[in-house]
Design brief:
- With 104 residues, the protein is an alpha+beta fold.
- It has a single domain, classed as Ybab, Chain: A.
- Helix content is 52%, strand content 17%.
- It is built from 2 helices and 3 strands; from the N terminus they run H-E-E-E-H.
- A 3-stranded antiparallel beta sheet has the order 1-2-3.
- Strand 2 and strand 3 form a beta hairpin.
- Helix 1 packs antiparallel against helix 2.
- It is rod-shaped and about 75 Å long.
């Protein structure tokens, strides 16, 4: 039984290039989420970095800042989860569904 190391290395290099291309694509994507019926809107990029926060000032009760903080947490976490799910879907297609630690 012969094992083709050169072929395996070539496949690994191709996979690495595809992964880099997908990561670059994800980097340029934006994921938006809102909470409180649109009181808080946020955007994150494909690297799960917060890029924008919008707060509808007309709807904010300055006597209830805790509610605003909660809405902000919900929106940010939702946007980050959307970004992670997209990364998992795109990279999962490349890895054939294998869960590779540190990849997702």
């Amino acid at each position: 039984m012969n094992f083709n190391y050169a072929g395996m290395m070539k496949q690994a290099k191709q996979m690495q290039q595809q992964m880099l291309a997908i990561k670059e694509e994800l980097k340029g994507m934006e994921f938006e989420a809102s909470s409180g019926g649109g009181v808080v809107k946020v955007k994150v990029n494909g690297e799960q970095e917060l890029t924008e926060v919008k707060i509808n000032k007309e709807m904010v009760d300055t006597n209830d800042i805790e509610m605003l903080e909660d809405m902000l947490l919900v929106a940010v976490n939702d946007a980050i989860n959307k970004s992670k799910e997209e990364a998992k879907n795109k990279l999962g297609a490349l890895t054939g569904g294998l869960n590779i630690p540190g990849l997702f």
